Amino acid sequence: MANIDQEVKTKFTNNKHRFLTNLVFTANWFNNMFVEFLKPYGISPQQFNILRILRGANDWVSMNDIKALMVDKSPNATRLSDKLLEKELVERKRSEQDRRVVYLALSKKGEELLEAIDKSDNSRHMEVEDRITEEEAKQFSDILDKIRG
Predict the structure, then answer these.
(1) Phi, psi of 94, rounded to the nearest 5 degrees
(2) Where are the beta strands (DSSP E) in the chain?
(3) CA angle 148-80-111, nearest 5°?
(4) Digit-coded pLDDT (tens) for 38-93
(5) pLDDT tens readout for residues 101-116
Protein backbone atom coordinates (compact mmCIF):
# COMPACT_ATOMS: atom_id res chain seq x y z
CA MET A 1 0.00 0.00 0.00
CA ALA A 2 1.25 3.46 -0.89
CA ASN A 3 1.43 6.26 1.62
CA ILE A 4 -1.64 8.42 2.20
CA ASP A 5 -0.35 11.25 -0.02
CA GLN A 6 -0.23 8.86 -2.98
CA GLU A 7 -3.49 7.10 -2.07
CA VAL A 8 -5.63 10.25 -2.06
CA LYS A 9 -3.39 12.23 -4.44
CA THR A 10 -3.35 15.42 -2.47
CA LYS A 11 -1.06 17.80 -0.63
CA PHE A 12 -1.86 18.25 3.03
CA THR A 13 -1.78 21.59 4.79
CA ASN A 14 0.04 20.10 7.79
CA ASN A 15 0.78 16.81 9.52
CA LYS A 16 -2.38 16.97 11.66
CA HIS A 17 -4.50 17.25 8.51
CA ARG A 18 -2.53 14.37 6.99
CA PHE A 19 -2.99 12.28 10.14
CA LEU A 20 -6.75 12.82 10.34
CA THR A 21 -7.22 12.01 6.65
CA ASN A 22 -5.04 8.93 7.06
CA LEU A 23 -7.05 7.89 10.13
CA VAL A 24 -10.38 8.06 8.27
CA PHE A 25 -8.92 6.43 5.15
CA THR A 26 -7.41 3.56 7.15
CA ALA A 27 -10.59 3.05 9.20
CA ASN A 28 -12.55 2.69 5.96
CA TRP A 29 -9.88 0.36 4.58
CA PHE A 30 -10.17 -1.87 7.66
CA ASN A 31 -13.96 -1.78 7.51
CA ASN A 32 -13.98 -2.80 3.84
CA MET A 33 -11.58 -5.64 4.60
CA PHE A 34 -13.84 -6.78 7.47
CA VAL A 35 -16.98 -6.60 5.29
CA GLU A 36 -15.26 -8.87 2.73
CA PHE A 37 -14.17 -11.27 5.49
CA LEU A 38 -17.74 -11.58 6.82
CA LYS A 39 -19.42 -11.83 3.40
CA PRO A 40 -19.29 -15.66 3.22
CA TYR A 41 -21.10 -15.81 6.58
CA GLY A 42 -23.96 -13.60 5.40
CA ILE A 43 -23.67 -11.02 8.15
CA SER A 44 -22.56 -7.40 8.37
CA PRO A 45 -19.95 -6.03 10.79
CA GLN A 46 -22.77 -4.48 12.85
CA GLN A 47 -24.60 -7.81 13.05
CA PHE A 48 -21.33 -9.51 14.01
CA ASN A 49 -20.89 -6.90 16.76
CA ILE A 50 -24.33 -7.72 18.20
CA LEU A 51 -23.57 -11.45 18.12
CA ARG A 52 -20.25 -10.88 19.92
CA ILE A 53 -21.95 -8.74 22.58
CA LEU A 54 -24.50 -11.49 23.18
CA ARG A 55 -21.82 -14.17 23.34
CA GLY A 56 -19.88 -12.12 25.88
CA ALA A 57 -22.95 -11.59 28.04
CA ASN A 58 -23.92 -15.26 27.96
CA ASP A 59 -27.45 -14.19 28.93
CA TRP A 60 -30.39 -12.09 27.77
CA VAL A 61 -29.36 -8.49 26.98
CA SER A 62 -31.69 -5.53 26.54
CA MET A 63 -31.64 -3.67 23.23
CA ASN A 64 -30.65 -0.50 25.10
CA ASP A 65 -27.59 -2.25 26.55
CA ILE A 66 -26.71 -3.67 23.13
CA LYS A 67 -26.89 -0.19 21.57
CA ALA A 68 -24.64 1.19 24.33
CA LEU A 69 -22.05 -1.57 23.83
CA MET A 70 -21.88 -1.48 20.04
CA VAL A 71 -18.65 -0.31 18.44
CA ASP A 72 -20.67 1.40 15.70
CA LYS A 73 -23.35 3.33 17.61
CA SER A 74 -25.97 2.43 15.05
CA PRO A 75 -29.47 3.82 15.49
CA ASN A 76 -30.84 0.88 13.51
CA ALA A 77 -30.05 -1.82 16.09
CA THR A 78 -33.68 -2.95 16.01
CA ARG A 79 -33.53 -3.54 12.25
CA LEU A 80 -30.19 -5.35 12.68
CA SER A 81 -31.69 -7.58 15.37
CA ASP A 82 -34.71 -8.30 13.13
CA LYS A 83 -32.34 -9.59 10.44
CA LEU A 84 -30.47 -11.72 12.98
CA LEU A 85 -33.79 -13.10 14.17
CA GLU A 86 -34.81 -13.96 10.58
CA LYS A 87 -31.52 -15.86 10.21
CA GLU A 88 -32.24 -17.63 13.54
CA LEU A 89 -28.95 -16.38 14.99
CA VAL A 90 -30.63 -14.76 18.01
CA GLU A 91 -33.69 -15.25 20.15
CA ARG A 92 -35.91 -12.39 21.27
CA LYS A 93 -38.28 -11.86 24.17
CA ARG A 94 -40.12 -8.94 25.73
CA SER A 95 -40.00 -7.92 29.36
CA GLU A 96 -43.02 -9.08 31.32
CA GLN A 97 -42.93 -5.87 33.42
CA ASP A 98 -42.56 -3.46 30.50
CA ARG A 99 -43.55 -4.70 27.05
CA ARG A 100 -41.50 -1.90 25.44
CA VAL A 101 -38.27 -3.52 26.67
CA VAL A 102 -36.86 -6.14 24.30
CA TYR A 103 -34.15 -8.66 25.15
CA LEU A 104 -31.92 -10.69 22.84
CA ALA A 105 -29.88 -13.82 23.43
CA LEU A 106 -27.55 -15.76 21.18
CA SER A 107 -29.16 -18.86 19.67
CA LYS A 108 -27.40 -22.18 19.17
CA LYS A 109 -27.14 -21.37 15.45
CA GLY A 110 -25.58 -18.00 16.35
CA GLU A 111 -23.04 -19.71 18.63
CA GLU A 112 -22.13 -22.10 15.83
CA LEU A 113 -21.68 -19.23 13.37
CA LEU A 114 -19.36 -17.38 15.74
CA GLU A 115 -17.36 -20.56 16.30
CA ALA A 116 -16.99 -20.99 12.53
CA ILE A 117 -15.85 -17.38 12.18
CA ASP A 118 -13.37 -17.83 15.05
CA LYS A 119 -11.88 -20.90 13.35
CA SER A 120 -11.75 -19.36 9.88
CA ASP A 121 -8.64 -18.22 8.08
CA ASN A 122 -8.20 -14.62 9.09
CA SER A 123 -4.61 -14.47 7.87
CA ARG A 124 -5.04 -11.06 6.28
CA HIS A 125 -5.90 -9.62 9.68
CA MET A 126 -2.87 -11.33 11.16
CA GLU A 127 -0.64 -9.85 8.46
CA VAL A 128 -1.74 -6.39 9.58
CA GLU A 129 -0.99 -7.24 13.21
CA ASP A 130 2.50 -8.38 12.19
CA ARG A 131 3.23 -4.96 10.67
CA ILE A 132 3.23 -3.15 14.01
CA THR A 133 4.86 -3.84 17.35
CA GLU A 134 3.04 -4.09 20.68
CA GLU A 135 4.57 -0.75 21.66
CA GLU A 136 3.34 0.92 18.44
CA ALA A 137 -0.12 -0.54 18.97
CA LYS A 138 -0.25 0.87 22.51
CA GLN A 139 0.99 4.29 21.40
CA PHE A 140 -1.55 4.51 18.61
CA SER A 141 -4.37 3.33 20.85
CA ASP A 142 -3.38 5.98 23.39
CA ILE A 143 -3.46 8.64 20.67
CA LEU A 144 -6.94 7.52 19.56
CA ASP A 145 -8.14 7.65 23.18
CA LYS A 146 -6.67 11.15 23.45
CA ILE A 147 -8.49 12.30 20.29
CA ARG A 148 -11.84 11.13 21.70
CA GLY A 149 -10.99 13.02 24.90
Answers:
(1) -100, 150
(2) 61-62, 90-94, 102-106
(3) 95
(4) 999 999 999 999 999 999 999 999 999 999 999 887 678 889 999 999 999 999 99
(5) 999 999 999 999 999 9
